[in-house]
Task: structure prediction
Amino acid sequence: MAWRAMNETLKAASTLPARLMILPHRSLTRAGLWLFLAMQSMAAGSFAGLAAWRGNVFAPFFAVLELGVVAYALSRVWRKSAAGEVITLSASAVEVARTDASAEPPRFHPYWARLELKPGRRFGWPSRLVLRSHGRETEIGRFLNEAERAALARQLNELLAHARRSGEEVD
Result:
C-alpha cells in the first residue's frame, strides 16, 4: 500500500512488506496554480494597460516579462514540492527511493539497518532522520516538520523491529 501524506502513514498496519510514500505538504493544486497565474495576469495586465495609456509604452513588455518569471518560478516550486520518498520495507530489504531521482535507491538489510533521529546542530535547526548500515547512510524525511519526523521514526523503528523478527523466523 502507499500513503500520500505523513499523517496517513501513521495509520498503517505494521505488516510486511510495507511501503510508505512520504510527500511534502502541498496546499496548492494544479488548478489553483493556474487560477492564481490567471488572476495575476489580469491584475498585471490591467495596471500595465493603464500605465501604457498614461504614456509608459514599455509597461506591457515589463508586465509580460514579470509574469513569465513568476510563472516559471512558481511552476518550478510546485514541481519540486512533489519530490518525496518511497520507503519499501520487507523481511529482506529496506529501500529508500526518491521520487525525483534517477540514481539507484539505497538498499539496506533490515537486520543491520539502524535508524537514528539526530538533533539539530544548533538551536532552531531541524533534526535529521538517518538510516544507516555498514558505513552507508541516507537521510529520510528532510522536508517533514519535527513532530512528523519523530512520528515517522517511531513508525519505521516498529517496522524494522517487525522485519527483524520476520527475518529470524524465515532463516
